[in-house]
Design brief:
Blueprint: H1 3-28, H2 32-43, H3 52-76, H4 90-106, H5 127-138, H6 149-157, H7 161-167, H8 174-183, H9 192-198, H10 204-207, E1 211-213, H11 220-238, H12 244-253, E2 255-259, H13 262-280, E3 281-285, E4 291-297, E5 307-310, H14 316-321, E6 331-334, H15 348-356, H16 370-379, E7 387-390, H17 395-398, H18 403-412
Parallel strand pairs: 1-2, 1-6, 2-5, 6-7
Antiparallel strand pairs: 3-4
Helix pairs in contact: 1-3, 1-5, 3-4, 3-5, 8-11, 11-12, 11-13, 12-13
């Protein structure tokens, strides 16, 4: 983590802690709207959250940060009027800006995130706190970022460290994401200079190649891959070689993610929405034909449907219920959970479900959960041309439970790099 990120996280923590305290007070009051929202939220989980009331309040508080992060991101991209010079106008500006953000977020309600989008409407932080968040974020530049800022802040500020190992929840640092995508020869946004020198047209084929993460979390790998596609697509749109509709189709269909956690899927969807911003807005013009200071969200938003699915990637029936047809992907990448057989008795039922499914032939002895995940990734990889990059436990090298997996990889696949 660089100094820039450390400073931001350190200054965010007290603000977010204050918001969380306000959320808890509101939640504990006689508020039927909050309780109804909690029930809806709980119904969206394939597996019950560890502490439902607590996690629901955490997510509600975090959404206040998300709203202000989006306000700042939209402003950076000239999609909102700038913050007013006159302080008395700040309240009106904040209300209008937040309304614009919520309008676009609500367009995600027809996606896999249907239901969770409105679960957090019961609470809104006070104006002073929201402006404090905004002014802190305004000191940082997120324009054209290829990093999962949402996942980083949520991971560092909210997820309890003592529960991460048991749940297999680990945040993937951005430098690791970049390293892995680079190893797979996936064009990254920081390669924009190379795109300029060598000609963006050589990357055109990559635009339509599919990338999947079967345990995507908030989308660390997907947002980095999408940023590369977005940079290439912007050049093609500017050259009138593809349309904005074409660019949106690429970003909503060629990037695919699965996760058990509906909130993680929601954050992944928001991350991809940010990458789509250059193609969602038309520049407005007044009656004299002169460009105005901001752009309006056009009707293309109604066609946004990201390929992010709240489903158990290890269960083909779970994926089938999302209506998603299983293709073979050109690239599969990720940081799947690695949870040992002895780590928690609460995982026993899930392990038995995997074992009894009959879909996995490489399970051996007291296997770690990363083993069936690895096999599932192989099952969905494009034959011959597909490329796979995963972070797994070091047990894959020596442990007996990984013997069948090692044999499968050595006999039927080309191993290009092991770090």
């Amino acid at each position: 983590m660089n100094d820039h990120s450390r400073i931001l996280l350190r200054k965010l923590q007290p603000i977010l802690a204050s918001i969380l305290e306000s959320v808890r007070i509101h939640f504990d009051s006689p508020d039927n709207q909050a309780r109804e929202a909690l029930q809806t939220w709980q119904s969206l989980y394939l597996f019950p959250p560890h502490r439902p009331d607590y996690e629901f309040c955490l997510q509600t508080a975090f959404m206040q940060f998300v709203h202000m992060y989006l306000v700042h991101t939209y402003e950076e991209n000239d999609l909102l009027l700038p913050y007013p010079m006159v302080k008395l106008e700040s309240k009106t500006w904040l209300a209008c800006s937040k309304q614009s953000v919520l309008h676009i977020l609500n367009s995600l309600d027809n996606n896999a995130f249907a239901g969770i989008v409105r679960c957090f409407d019961w609470f809104s932080a006070d104006e002073q706190t929201l402006l404090q968040l905004y002014h802190l974020l305004k000191k940082h530049n997120f324009k054209s970022s290829n990093e999962d800022i949402l996942g980083k802040v949520y991971n560092e500020s909210f997820i309890e460290h003592r529960n991460r190992s048991e749940k297999g929840q680990f945040y993937t640092p951005s430098h690791v994401v970049s390293y892995m995508l680079d190893a797979l020869d996936i064009p990254m946004y920081h390669d924009d200079s190379a795109i300029s020198v060598h000609g963006y047209k050589i990357y055109r084929e990559y635009l339509h190649q599919t990338i999947a993460d079967l345990s995507c979390g908030s989308g660390s790998f997907l947002v980095a891959a999408a940023a590369g596609k977005r940079a290439i697509a912007q050049r093609l749109v500017a050259a009138h070689e593809i349309t904005r509709e074409d660019a949106l189709h690429i970003l909503t269909s060629a990037i695919v993610g699965f996760d058990l956690n509906p909130f993680a899927c929601y954050l992944a969807g928001i991350n991809l929405l940010i990458q789509c911003l250059p193609f969602l807005f038309n520049q407005c013009e007044d009656t004299s034909g002169k460009s105005m200071e901001h752009r309006k969200f056009d009707s293309l938003q109604s066609r946004l449907k990201f390929s992010i699915h709240c489903a158990d990637a290890l269960d083909p029936l779970s994926i089938e219920r999302t209506g998603f047809a299983e293709p073979k992907f050109d690239y599969v990448v990720g940081n799947p959970p690695y949870v040992s057989a002895n780590e928690s008795s609460s995982n026993l039922l899930y392990r038995n479900k995997i074992w009894n499914s009959g879909h996995y032939l490489l399970l051996n002895q007291k296997w770690d959960v990363f083993v069936p995940f690895f096999e599932r990734n192989l099952q969905l990889l494009q034959p011959e041309s597909g490329r796979l990059g995963l972070i797994v436990s070091s047990g894959i090298e020596t442990e007996g439970y990984a013997q069948r997996l090692r044999q499968e990889l050595c006999e039927h696949y080309n191993l290009l790099q092991i770090d």
